[in-house]
Amino acid sequence: MLKFESAWRFDSPGKIPSGVSNDFSDMIGKIARGEQKILEHFKQYFASASGTTAAWSSSARWADSDLHTYMDSAAENAPLFIEAFYDACETLKSEHDYPAPDVNLINRILANYEAPYRVEPPNLVFQKSHVTALPPDIPVSLDQGARELIQASISEGQKLIAEGRYRQAVQEVLWLLETVTTAFQGLNDGETSIEGKYFNKIIEELKGNKQGTALEQIIGWIKNLHGYLSAPVGGGIRHGMHLKEGVATSQSEARLYYNLTISYISFLLSEYERIKAANS
Questions:
Q1: In 3-state terms, what secondary structure has residue 24?
Q2: 65-112, pLDDT tens digit by residue?
Q3: In the chain, which end has fewer C-beta atoms inside a 10 angstrom radius, N or C?
Q4: Secondary structure letter of residue 6 according to DSSP
C-alpha cells in the first residue's frame, strides 16, 4: 500500500483524469495479452479500491469487462485508483516476474494529464505545480520559428517539472536562457552594439556602461546564476557534477533555479522588445 493522507481513503479528494484511466487500461491490456489470470489480478486491486471484492469471472472477456467496471468505480477516488494500479504492477513484478510499468512511466502519465499526484515510493505525494514564475511574454517581433522554439522549450520545462525530473527541467531552461540571449546579436541599445556570439559575451555587452542601474544588477544576478549552474562543483547542471566534490541538486534547489531562470528569461525578452522598438 502506498502511504498518503489517511482521510483520502474515506473522503475522495477528486476523480482521476479520464486520460490517466484510459492509459492505465491500455497498459493493463498490453501486460495481460488476453490472459485471464492477469486481468483477474488487476481486477482484485481495483475492486478493493472500489470498496468491494471481486469474484473470478466466467471468461477472459467477462474479466476484462468486470475490470473496467471496477476501474470506473475506483476512478472516483484518484489516490485509491493510483494505488491500485501501482500495487498491482509491483506485485506482478516482484511475485510473478511479469513486465510492468515502472514509477517513472506512471508519473509521466499522471503529469501528462495534470493529475496533481506523484508516486515517490512508499508515498503518494499530492503536488501543486512547482512552477511559480509566470511564462514569459514572447515578443511578436521575433520570427515565427523563434517564438515556436521558445514556447516548445517552456512547455518541455513545465512538463519535466511536473514529472519531477528537476535536473532535466533546469537544464532545459538554462539552455533556453542561453538561446534567448542570441536574439540580441546585432542590436544597438543606443550606447553599445551587441556583437558577441555566446552567452557570456552577449550578456556583458548588454549591461554596457549602465553602472548603478537596475539593469546592471539584474545582469549580474543572471551571470551569477548561470555561472553557478555551469560549474561542476556548483550547481553541476550544465557541465556535469564533480563526482568527488559536487553535491547533487535537491528538489527544492532545482525548483528555485527553474523559477529564477524563467524569470530572467522573461526579463531578457522584455528587454529585447524594448531595444528592438527603440531601433525601429
A1: helix
A2: 999 999 999 999 999 999 999 999 999 998 888 889 999 899 989 988
A3: C
A4: G
